[in-house]
Amino acid sequence: MEATRLAEAVRAGELDPVRLTERVLDGIEAADRVVGAFRKVRPEAVAEARELARRSDLARLPLAGVPVAVKDVTEITGEYASSGSAATTTELSTEDSLVVRRLRAAGAVIVGITRVPELCCWPMTDSPDGIARNPWQPAYTAGGSSGGSAAAVAAGLVPVAHGTDGLGSIRLPAAMCGLVGIKPGADLLGEGGWYGMSTHGSLATTVADAALLLGVLAGRPDLARVGGPGRLRVAVSSEVPLTRAPVPKPLRDAVDRVADVLTAAGHAVERATPRYGIEPALGILGRWFAGPAEHADGLDKTLLQPRTRTHVRIGDTLRKARLIRPGTKNRWLARAAEFFGRYDILVTPALATLPPKAARWHERSCLANAIPSIRLAGFAGLWNLAGYPAISVPAARHGHDLPIGVQLVAGPQGEARLLALAAQLEAHNPWPRLPG
């Protein structure tokens, strides 16, 4: 079930968007009690598909009839965005957000709202109502904070899903669930959260589908036309920023495999690591605490989960001490620009450790959540601080039959280049689309 093919069939009159929507909702009803992808399923989607089928421009819509899941962070008319928290308002939205308006205008049918960890703080997605599990191996987490979106796509419940990424929240679950997950640059789809580090993005099983959805979300249809990458200067590094902790061998091997594929494809590939330094890593750590604290302003903090209350208290302390400073970002930007003056692409592991197990992480302490979170996300967050685009693509598998993703990073306005290189990897190093 690929979005590009579904849309083609609907545009050609070969597939009824109403029946497609009904089939997808039936599939979610049958499978989501195991997967835990959705906070809310939308039966209203059938009526919306019926309205879509009557549109005079149906044959021209890029996402004609495509069922799409939306992360529980953005406004949908008649719904509320909970951000995974009992402390947020349940007042129903009276209008759609910009990205939802663009989805509807493109012909997408929004079938559900996907689960997130509270205030999107963690790379493991669970709540008192359920746990988002990895469809490849349900004993493991689907990741976070776009874990519900990743689980929905990897389980084949929807072909594509919306996500947001503040410190890896699209790329980490994509890597765990065997998906293509792209975080565009902050100048393309920045949504303002977490001190400007968070962006909207897409998750899909194929590069073409990820590009199609990203083009719609960004209002950039040219991004859906994935071309060739040309011959690129590619740097490869498995050195974890700040800690330089040892990276598990399966993750290093996946990067080496991708390096070999890119070399065989004619790219200039060499080992090289950016001058990460300590300051930017500490900067993203501070923003990880302060961003959710800013989100919690005005909320009844007694309704937050205990781990989140502690997280927010730390963030409030950092904010009051004025320790979130723009100079940290500016100095890191100078180093990143220096590096990308020599290279077009950086290839790293997407994860710095193997994925955590699925569990009721929200019942554990802040420290018990923070340690695995920090260890896991070592390669991701610096590119949010820089505002550079980055993508995770499947590359290999390891012992528990879990996918392994690698991260590709490009300089500013590099989304098309990332998608082109990812498509080349997809052709030369293909991956299984869905479990089984």
Automatic annotation (TrEMBL):
Q: Where is the Amidase domain?
A: 20-419
For this protein, the record's InterPro entries field holds: Amidase, Amidase_dom, AS_sf
Q: Which Gene3D superfamilies match?
A: Amidase signature (AS) domain (3.90.1300.10)
Molecular function GO labels:
catalytic activity
Q: Which domain of life is it from?
A: Bacteria
PANTHER family with a match to the protein in the record = GLUTAMYL-TRNA(GLN) AMIDOTRANSFERASE SUBUNIT A, MITOCHONDRIAL, TRANSAMIDASE
Task: Tell me which family the UniProt entry assigns to this protein.
Answer: Belongs to the amidase family.
Q: Under what name is this protein listed?
A: Amidase
Instruction: Please name the source species.
Output: Amycolatopsis pithecellobii
